[in-house]
Amino acid sequence: MSDAKQNRFILVTRKTRLQELVERFNTWPQAKFYLEHNQVDAEDYLVEHDLYTRRLVEAESILRKKGLFQRLERSFLPNYTFNAKDIVVVIGQDGLVANTLKYLDGQPVIAINPDPDRWDGKLLSFEICDLESTVTRTETQRASLQSITFAEATTNDGQRMLAVNDLFIGPRSHTSARYSLTLGNTTENQSSSGIIVSTGLGSTGWLQSILAGALGVMGGNRHEMQQGFAWDEKRLQFTVREPFPTRSTGTKLVFGSISEQRQMRVESYMPENGVIFSDGIELDYLPFNSGSVISIGISKTKGMLVVG
């Protein structure tokens, strides 16, 4: 058997808006009534669902001819065991690609835009018509791959969380977080609405909204980080949201870089409601309450996205 035949093809999918509504209201007629009652065009939900379903059927037909095949819905990603030879195909939006990368360890990911008229897709390099040729190049190691640096948070009780875009450390709700932040040889007690740690991939996302707000307050229009930084750069950028100066808390360590040589350490002073989550998925979190200490650095795990 050839090496290509030993590959397993994993097709990662997500539920459409229509499917999620049907789960909520039990039937499509009930879901449709809800939409129309709120003056929302139900036809758009049907069009999106039908097109996405067709793209999945086309992809499955192509991949089944190539070798072993597995279809995997997004909610099963955390419990699925990927093999080193797996080739992963993601059909969906950018968020699904990022969410998938987090559970891999260097396996190549081919990201397909199911509806280019609807989604711009910064991470979606291909359309369905490109799938077969892209899979062939990936099998034969002729595809162009883009390495993606991950952030990693490790707690003092041995738990670990990866981030493809960013990590959030702070309060579960709209309250103040209290903690100490150590970077290099400098430690500062802080009170804020949380800390954002961005990767290169995430540096054009949440980080940019924080920079835009800061520039607006200062009356500026330029910052060296406005274009972000490279996806594969061995660097993370942290920023503290809404730092509040008091007699016991400071505002000096509010923006800076984390490198392979310099990690960040954060100790929680919150009795409850402290959390750490990644890539905007608040339901998948680690508790960060009094007694918790986390180290944040660049992960040895990295993502590999097929780009050509």
Compact summary:
The chain is an alpha+beta fold and 308 residues long.
Fold and architecture overview:
With 308 residues, the protein is an alpha+beta fold. It contains 7 helices and 16 strands. It has helices at 3-6, 17-25, 28-37, 42-66, 94-101, 131-139, 206-218; strands at 8-13, 68-73, 86-91, 108-112, 145-155, 160-163, 166-171, 177-183, 186-192, 195-198, 235-240, 255-259, 264-268, 274-278, 285-287, 293-306. The strands form 2 sheets. Strands 1, 2, 3, 4, 5, 6, 8, 9, 13 and 16 form a 10-stranded mixed beta sheet that branches. It has a 6-stranded antiparallel beta sheet with strand order 12-11-10-7-14-15, with helices on one face. The longest helix has 25 residues, at 42-66. The protein is globular, with a radius of gyration of 22 Å. The protein starts with a helix and ends with a strand. The mean pLDDT is 93.
- Helix vs. strand class: alpha+beta
Number of helices: 7
What characteristic shape results from the CA principal axes? globular
Question: Biggest sheet, in brief?
Answer: 10 strands, mixed
- What is the gyration radius calculated from CA atoms? 22 Å
Mean pLDDT across residues: 93
The overall strand count is 16
Low-confidence stretches: none
**SSE arrangement, N to C:** HEHHHEEHEHEEEEEEHEEEEEE
- Level of helix content? 25-40%
